[in-house]
Amino acid sequence: MLERLRQPDIKIENEKAYLVRAVINRAINWKNKQAKKISEYPGTWLPEPVATESADGALHQRDILSYSLMVLMEKLDARSRAVFILKEAFDYDHEEIASLLDISVENSRKILSRAKKQVRNSQAHTIAPKLPSGYLERYISIIQSGDTKQLEALLHNDVIVTSDGGGKAIAAINPIVGKDHVLQFLSGIYRKAYQDVFITSGFVNHQPALLFFRNGALGTCQIFEMEDGKIFRTYLMRNPDKLLALEAEFKKQNSH
After folding, report:
1. How much is the pTM?
2. What domain count does the chain have?
3. In whole angstroms, what is the distance from residue 249 CA to residue 209 CA?
4. Which one of 37, 118, 163, 252 is CB 3.0 to 4.6 Å from 236, fit for a cystine?
5. Do 97 and 173 share a domain, yes or no?
6. Is 208 in contact with 130 (CB distance < 8 Å)?
7. Looking at the structure, do residues 85 and 168 belong to the same domain, yes or no?
């Protein structure tokens, strides 16, 4: 792409707009191809988690959307997703969006309106609310002790657990819904699979998360979404392919 900018026979008046448009078009094409893969994906597909605690995180963390918002945006088609991100995350106006996507201003407004309705429970914020001090440490202590009563007290009545194993790691095929079912599910998997692991806390896509390591390898990333001080949504990423970058970043941070 940069080579094309250097070619003297191509006249580009606005290099930034040209590059943004090229990136958007590539992203739309990639998203369209990805849709077919997701339709054939074993179990639930979740986006790849991104660490947001690196030393240079301040330089790029505003460009990283919250994990909950990324999950919600999977409901959108590629063009709606592009309009939504440009307007809500990067504050482009509709005239700029229309020019970049070769659509009318009116169409841009309509696409955004429909997209907002589809992700109506999200406010497009990228920074998650802070947890009470020691919350994750308390959670770790409760699951390691197997105290179901205390665990139940941490869960929202409408809590949902969504897992992604990618067919390469054990994971629930469908989301687990409701406090009773989630309590049973979480208690069971911690009792069976997480007794001999190293657990540490951190932030993934600006949301609180736990990282579960066994023999030095990251096996699970659990991301939390809170409401009214209780766990409202929790995502269990277990697909090893989607944990590689997160594991590498964690080890890089802890090697200094």
Report:
1. 0.77
2. 2
3. 14
4. 163
5. no
6. no
7. no
Q: What is the CATH number of the domain that holds 167?
A: 3.10.450.50
- Cα(15)–Cα(18) distance, integer angstroms: 5
Instruction: With a cut of 90, say whether residue 48 has pLDDT above it.
Output: yes
pLDDT digits (tens, 9 = 90+) for 205-238: 889 999 999 999 999 999 999 888 899 999 999 9
Q: What is the pLDDT of residue 10?
A: 57
In Å, what is the CA distance from 2 to each residue of 10, 15, 23? 12, 10, 12
Output the 3-class SS for the chain: CHHHHHCCCCCCCCHHHHHHHHHHHHHHHHHHHHHHHHHCCCCCCCCCCCECCCCCHHHHHHHCCCHHHHHHHCCCCHHHHHHHHHHHHCCCCHHHHHHHHCCCHHHHHHHHHHHHHHCCCCCCCCCCCCCCCCHHHHHHHHHHHCCHHHHHHHEEEEEEEEEECCCCCCCCCCCEECHHHHHHHHHHHHHHHCCCCEEEEEEECCEEEEEEEECCEEEEEEEEEEECCEEEEEEEECCHHHHHHHHHHHHHHCCC
